[in-house]
Amino acid sequence: MTLALPRPHRDDVRIAVGGLLGGVLLWALGTQPRVPTGAQVLWRVSWAPLIPLAVTAACALLRRTRPRAGLVIGTAALALDTVTVGGIVTLVLYTDLVYAAVLYGGSATARRVPWVTGMLTVLGGVVPAAVGRDPRWLLAGVAVGVVAFAPAATGWVVRDHRDAAEAARLRAEQTALLAEVDRTQAVTAERARMARELHDLVAGHLSAIAIHSTAALSLDDPETSKDALAVIRENSVEGLAEMRRLIGVLRAGSADREPSAIPTLDGLATLVEGARANGLDVRLDAGQGRVPAPVGLAAYRIVQESLTNALKHAGEGPVEVRLRRRAGVLDVRVTSPYRPGDTPRAPGSGAGLAGMRERVALLGGEFAAGPEGARWTVRTALPLAEGESP
């Protein structure tokens, strides 16, 4: 099985080819960074500097894909270059390998290379100068620092800025994602609120219309039919008015956005009168005092939905509505005659109880609904907000 090397980046190919051609050109012109000495055993071979040049240029192809391997091989090539007259392009390519190892290498490589090159700079200059008491050795340390430590430090700075930019980009993406989640949740909550409002506005009137239209069709009594049609017309007009009021509140820029468009507990008497006109025997017992607008709206809608359910499901007998305030809580209790197993007088969607439960949950209150003997009871405890008006 053969090991497939990753394809080098096109910029790395340009660096390798350009470095190789530039080094060959300088070699052909006879330029050399060092004067031949006896220690440079290969200096007499004219083409010897081309070997480390070619190896270092080849390592440039690995500067992104295999930066650590490129640095190791390039270091060996630089060591080979020291026994020749050398090539300036080989040194330049090696500094780029050190820079690339820190910038593109792993986190361990990025930490170790600056530390190692820094130690080599100190050991290559300060220690020999101190031991031999010859300040000229400091030039060797400077050379090592220029060739190795300076590129490593530059790579570390660039890598740090790149990581910071990447972290900022990720934070921006996370912020945008959270904003999208918040927007979606807000839209969902608003749709649920509109669904509850539409249900509470329409269900009562349409239930009354369905019940009285059934009575008008089933009874062959002109007087009864006339009374039923009067109730149907009244509920149709009131339902249309409620719908127009809700549309006015929702429509942007509409002038009908004043608080009077929001139902309050002051309208319970009118609500009860409408239920009585629809045939319910409703008894209202509401305490005095004002409550915060969200609590008043929730209590009004709960009573409205309870009366609608009583109109569709309750048996013969009184429907009792009672509101009481106690220790920062508004208690709402609606009871009606319970007829287990009876068919409802008007079709329903089953969303009424769910809507009431959602309203109470949004205010952090308590809700319960169910049969208690021969009565169906809806019990609600709505916490009153601090700073309410007495």
How is this fold's topology laid out?
Layout: H1 10-29, H2 50-60, H3 67-81, H4 88-104, H5 107-132, H6 137-218, H7 222-250, H8 268-277, E1 281-286, H9 293-313, E2 318-326, E3 329-337, H10 352-362, E4 366-372, E5 375-383
Parallel strand pairs: 1-2
Antiparallel strand pairs: 2-3, 3-5, 4-5
Helix pairs in contact: 1-2, 1-4, 2-3, 2-4, 3-4, 4-5, 4-6, 5-6, 6-7, 6-9, 8-9, 9-10
Give structural notes:
The structure is a single chain. With 390 residues, the chain is α+β, with helices and mostly antiparallel strands. The protein has two domains: 10-174, no CATH class; 265-390, Histidine kinase-like ATPase, C-terminal domain (Heat Shock Protein 90), CATH 3.30.565.10. The protein is 62% helix and 10% strand. It has a five-stranded mixed beta sheet, with helices on one face. A hairpin with a 2-residue loop joins strand 4 and strand 5 (375-383). The model is unreliable at 253-260 and 386-390 (pLDDT under 50).
List keywords for this structure.
2 domains; rod-shaped; 10% strand; disordered C terminus; 5 strands; alpha+beta; 10 helices; single chain; 5-stranded mixed β-sheet; Heat Shock Protein 90; 62% helix; 390 residues
